[in-house]
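Model: Ready when you are.
Researcher: Fold this.
Model:
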Amino acid sequence: MKSKKKLQRILLPLALTLILIGIGVAVWLAASGAGKNRHAEIKDAANTNFPLRVDFVDVGQGDGILIRCGNETIVIDGGERDYAGAFVAYLRNEKVSDISCYIASHPHNDHIGAAPAVFSAFNVHMLMTTAFSELNTPTNVSYEELLTAVEAERDCEVLFVKAGDTFTFGELSLQIFAPVSESTNHNDMSIVVKATYGDVSFLFTGDAEFESEQAMLDAGFDLRADVLKVGHHGSSSSTTPAFFRAVDPAAAVISCGKDNVYGHPHREVLQMFENAGISVYRTDRDGTVTICSDGVDLFVRRSY
């Protein structure tokens, strides 16, 4: 009898300790997002008839993104000037007429080179861009052509966005996470935006590099997203392990040109995704990548 009571005295505290540890782990997971209800896999789409559709268009070594949610159409970048005709043709083929918002992520040709053609071909109701100080204002041709195109659109509202801004387009919400502050590195002036529909979210990062990523982490933004548009075409100058853990994506999309001279995407970035078991889609291998959602699940279709 004594041995039984002794055993109970040992086991009871042990059981209570294990219960407390379990509760502590559950609380930590909830707080950190590490145990969030993430999709175990990205399903192949039998069709693309979903309330939310995001097309990562194959524009070679550049970014060109089309987002449609209900009656709202949002375009991010469009690729180099040489891809302007192909990008506009893609939008027309997708029956785009009015563009609710055009987001110029940052003033580099591989992102906004096609912008003037987009403004010429469609009714663009809003432009989101970043404000630059006088000494840091871009002087490249693509940026100047974008400004000229916007001036010709009298009905286009121009917004200079910054970290912390929020917008709503129908059932789609947009949160701006960067730029947090001005940088002489225009990649780190990229607009980083999280788009959320229902329980599903996408994080579009432009060419944001380490400086911008750290600023977003320091600001304490909720960076978690189901789909990550990988920064700077998969360059090792972006996607630090800390930033990657904070996003904790179920899938990643890399927009880059086939056999590009930069070697994008870089091996160490791909290895990080592979080690974490993340589904990676690449426009250089998969062509245009379309990810759709009903607000709960994700469905993907590749053009190749």
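Researcher: Now this one.
Model:
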Amino acid sequence: MQKLDLIIIGTQKAGTSSLFRLLGQHPEINSHITGEIGFFIHDNHYNQGYEKMYNHYFSETDHNKIALAKNVGIFESEKALERLKDHNPHAKIIVILRNPADRAYSAFWYMKSIGAERAERFEDIYKTSSAERFPGNDFMIRSCDYVQRGNYYDYLQTVEKYFDRKQIKVINFNDFKKDAVAVCENIFQFAELKPFQVKNEIKNKSKQIKYVWLASLFGVHSRGKFKDVVSRIVSPEMRLKVKTFVERINMKDLKIPKMDPQIKEELNSYYQDANRKLQEEYKIEF
């Protein structure tokens, strides 16, 4: 069974989905058919075994290609990192880092756009623990921990407990936004693949859902019986088609207001020490 060779582990709202789609253009890469795989994160997925996950999410088995995967939750989960190390200690890891204050604000609006976050304003909840707001809901606790997830330096130190630094590629979101093609070329070199120039035709536009109940049928934050039944009897390819169709008809344009300058200044001050360490050790500057 082919192991995962190249995996994007974070961070949330830093262009990881766009990067995943661009890297998947390389003829020597085999990527899974959905945006995220939960194998290393979710106990129920992990306990079913890797072979079942691989056959479920990868549309082809080609041992001449390298397997590319993505899950942004791995970056903050030591348990998931340990599982990934057990799976393939030689895996190459990709992390994209974005200005943590901007990332936190973007994550809030993303969670609102999919109908998961019900708070009206970021400034009303950014100081409140997500565990306090969503007791017992692991997905919401992780995804809505907007401020804590910006402590990148600490998370990178944990990643390095399991993987050598030469196996880790840390990318500045600003560089990716400026020249995604060049970033991909650099990653192909890091992954020891032949040179290949991707076509960057991805244009992201902020959207929000019209109807929460409709989005909850397939949304990642949903844990209802309907979703569980569908997951068991419908193929990943068909679920993706239906989910894409539902999202298309259930979305409208979203205009995100600018973050309160005072709050951004407060957050930048909070991250100052961690950002300084990032600059010194990883040459990442926001």
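Researcher: Key takeaway?
Model: The chain is about 45% helix and 10% strand.
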